[in-house]
Inverse folding.
């Protein structure tokens, strides 16, 4: 795990750190080709410069966000925002279903909307894959 992501995780409470560490390890394992960094103050993974997945500490949970998640057709993911993002929220590591995460990460690789160029396209998303 990158040091800057481990530093982010280490700043969380014990329970939230366990969630963040689990998510980071799983994402790194399932998307080894992805670049990861702290982006807008949160850990995010990118494929070809396009944000794919990330997580962030919210007031009462840790949110796992998939930028193209609304296109995954997964009931366990909730729509987030006005674009194509969807999320899952966790308050304990025991809530995380590893098979769901692996399936969602495979879909994140195969189903992508072009967030990298959203500003250039004046807020219009185009499907990449």
């Amino acid at each position: 795990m990158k040091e800057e992501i481990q530093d982010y995780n280490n700043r969380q409470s014990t329970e939230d750190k366990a969630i963040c560490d689990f998510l980071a390890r799983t994402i790194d394992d399932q998307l080894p080709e992805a670049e990861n960094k702290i982006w807008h103050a949160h850990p995010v993974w990118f494929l070809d410069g396009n944000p794919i997945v990330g997580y962030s500490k919210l007031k009462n949970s840790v949110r796992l966000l998939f930028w193209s998640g609304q296109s995954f057709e997964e009931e366990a993911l909730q729509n987030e925002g006005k674009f194509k993002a969807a999320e899952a929220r966790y308050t304990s590591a025991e809530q995380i279903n590893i098979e769901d995460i692996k399936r969602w990460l495979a879909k994140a690789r195969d189903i992508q909307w072009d967030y990298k160029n959203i500003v250039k396209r004046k807020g219009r998303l185009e499907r990449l894959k």
In short: The chain has one domain: 3-110. The chain has a mean pLDDT of 92.
